[in-house]
Specification:
With about 280 residues, the chain is an alpha/beta fold. The protein has a single domain (about 1-235), classed as Rossmann fold, CATH 3.40.50. Helix content is about 30%, strand content about 25%. The chain contains six helices and eleven strands. It has helices spanning about 40-55, 65-80, 95-110, 130-140, 195-215, 265-280; strands at about 1-5, 10, 35, 55-60, 80-85, 115-120, 145-155, 160-165, 170-180, 180-185, 220-225. The strands form two sheets. Strands 9-8-7-10-6-1-4-5-11 form a nine-stranded mixed β-sheet, sandwiched between helices. A hairpin with a 2-residue loop joins strand 8 (about 160-165) and strand 9. It is globular. It holds the Pfam family ETF. This is Electron transfer flavoprotein subunit alpha/beta. GO terms for molecular function: electron transfer activity.
């Protein structure tokens, strides 16, 4: 099997230093970035699939060159074999539609059509949940969303999943789709490794990938819009029908605690620290 997981870098809102240009577009290259938290559900789903069925696992992202670090983190999380970064100034300021066109084209450029593509639930910056389904629409593949359990019948060429109906944890249905297909994991998804063989495979993959992830750049392919044969009129800002009317700044959370600096060589000061810690621990020195 060949599976692909989509991931994305999002602003680290904890830093309170999100950068926008004069037109209200996020300047991702000037903003502290972390992996989108909801992509970790997709990564866990992909890892379970690799452990149970083997094959190649790739991770793909679109963004500035700094997203290579996000892909490196994903490689170590999901024990990926290869990474793909779609990166180019022409792709900047893409909305979900322009992003979906780019990602779908990247998936088509792979040397082997993926059996499954795993997409995140939604991103922490846009909160739309559009990109995975829109990329799937571009490829005219089936899609299963809100997935909480998954298995693949390779002989039949199908994927069977349990999913939440309209995201309701009280109503679950079982659905089946032919592959290739897109899968969007729900935050309720919990991977299961039912056999000793699965758990041994997981252990082996962890050891193997730990070394590979140290030099993840050697396993990363970068494609720009020319490599993908994309018309600049249909990607980036020009290809994005979404119009940003306004942007409210994200304030940095105020510090609510005062800190007292104590030099470790200050015996009296350190004694006060230990006394305070002992009181909170409920013990005595």
């Amino acid at each position: 099997m060949h599976t692909v997981t989509l991931t994305k870098g999002v602003p680290d809102f904890r830093e309170g230093q999100v950068s926008f240009d004069e037109d209200g577009h996020l300047e991702r290259g000037n903003t502290p970035t972390v992996m989108n938290p909801n992509d970790k559900h997709a990564l866990r789903t992909a890892l379970q699939t690799k452990v149970r069925h083997g094959g190649r696992l790739s991770v793909m992202s679109m963004g500035p060159p700094g997203y290579g670090d996000v892909l490196g983190e994903a490689m170590e999380s999901v024990y990926a074999d290869e990474l793909y970064l779609l990166s180019d100034r022409e792709l900047a300021a893409s909305d979900t539609w322009a992003t979906a066109i780019t990602i779908a084209t990247g998936l088509q450029k792979l040397d082997e059509t993926p059996d499954l593509v795993f997409a995140g639930f939604k991103t922490a910056d846009g909160e739309t949940g559009h990109t995975g389904p829109q990329a799937c629409w571009c490829l005219d593949w089936p899609i299963i969303t809100h997935v909480i359990a998954l298995d693949v019948d390779e002989d039949e060429g199908t994927v069977r999943a349990k999913r939440l109906v309209e995201g309701d944890i009280e109503e679950i249905e079982t659905v089946e789709a032919p592959i290739p297909a897109f899968v969007v994991a729900d935050p309720e998804f919990e991977p299961t490794y039912r056999t000793a063989g699965d758990r041994l495979t997981l252990k082996d993959l962890r050891a193997e990938t730990k070394e590979r992830a140290k030099n993840h750049e050697e396993h990363m392919t970068t494609w720009d819009h020319a490599d993908l044969n994309l018309d600049p009129d249909y990607i980036g800002l020009d290809g994005s029908p979404t119009i940003v009317s306004s942007v409210d700044p994200i304030p940095k959370a105020p510090a609510e605690r005062e800190a007292t600096m104590v030099d470790p060589g200050d015996e009296a000061g350190m004694s006060e620290v230990f006394d305070a810690m002992a009181a909170h621990a409920g013990g005595e020195q």
